[in-house]
Specification:
Structural class: alpha/beta
Strand order of the largest sheet: 5-4-3-6-7-9-8
Oligomer: single chain
Largest sheet: 7 strands, mixed
Mean pLDDT: 96
Order of helices and strands: EEHEHEHEEHHEHEE
Radius of gyration: 16 Å
Length: about 210
């Protein structure tokens, strides 16, 4: 078991799961800033991993949090991290596919999504990362597109989503995807590149 300081939290994980990236603290902070202007309501985190991003956000905004990941081991760590964080909010960690374990009637004011975004052909560049945690398919956006569909169904009117991607080029592809999928009501309103980070953040709304 290893530990890492992530904001004000101590996060626990091991070699079987994706090691938390310190730069992703920027996702928690941006979402917290957006939350100041959102209606009251809970947070949903898709592809939550060991839970650090959503937990830090919940610690800042004091909103209940639901976290979902397809990896049972990651969920075990997320539950442990939630328990040791001792937050004054409810944290519900669910193991399963992100498009299957959210109930149809559930709505969230703020949705984080942290899908794998490495193209399959490039996953060999990250030999120490679990393949299932980084492989985003042919163009790196397979699960990101599923996240957008889930977000569209469960983001309340006036809510905000913060989706993590790998590059500004992928962000442009997401914008094109949303423009062509007319049944989706999401729109991309901002892209933020983090200096020195291997990844970008996008802000979505509906």
């Amino acid at each position: 078991m290893e530990t890492m300081t992530f904001g004000d939290l101590t996060v626990r994980f091991d070699q079987r799961v994706l090691r938390p990236r310190p730069w992703t603290l920027a996702q928690s902070l941006w979402a917290a800033a957006l939350a100041q202007h959102l209606p009251k309501g809970p947070i949903l985190e898709l592809c939550a991993g060991v839970g650090h991003i959503g937990l830090h956000l919940a610690s800042l905004v004091r909103r209940d949090l639901t976290q979902i990941d397809a990896d049972a081991i990651a969920c075990e760590h997320a539950r442990l991290n939630a328990a040791t964080a001792n937050l004054d909010v409810q944290v519900d960690v669910r193991h399963g596919l992100i498009d299957q374990v959210v109930q149809p009637q559930e709505q969230f004011t703020l949705i984080l999504a942290d899908p794998p975004w490495v193209a399959t052909a490039d996953t060999g560049n990250y030999p120490f990362d679990p393949l299932s945690a980084i492989d985003g398919g042919y163009d790196g956006l397979d699960l990101a597109r599923t996240c957008l569909q889930v977000m569209d169904r469960h983001l309340c009117q006036g809510g905000a989503g913060v989706l993590q991607l790998g590059t500004t080029e992928q962000a442009a592809q997401v914008e094109t995807y949303l423009a062509t999928q007319t049944q989706l009501k999401l729109r991309l309103v901002a892209v933020r590149a983090i200096p020195g980070a291997n990844g970008v953040l996008t802000h979505l709304t509906r």
